[in-house]
Specification:
Blueprint (H helix, E strand, L loop, with lengths): L1 H14 L1 H21 L1
Helix pairs in contact: 1-2
Amino acid sequence: MARWVMPRVLHVVLTGPGGLATVGVAAGYMLAWRMVAR
C-alpha cells in the first residue's frame, strides 16, 4: 500500500490543493470499497 501512496503524495505536493482534494476523495472511496469488499 505504501508503494501506491507515496507517488500520490508526491504528486499532490506538486499539483496543489486541487490535486489533494481529488486524491483524498479517491483514497476515501478506495478505503470504503475495500471495507465493503470484505
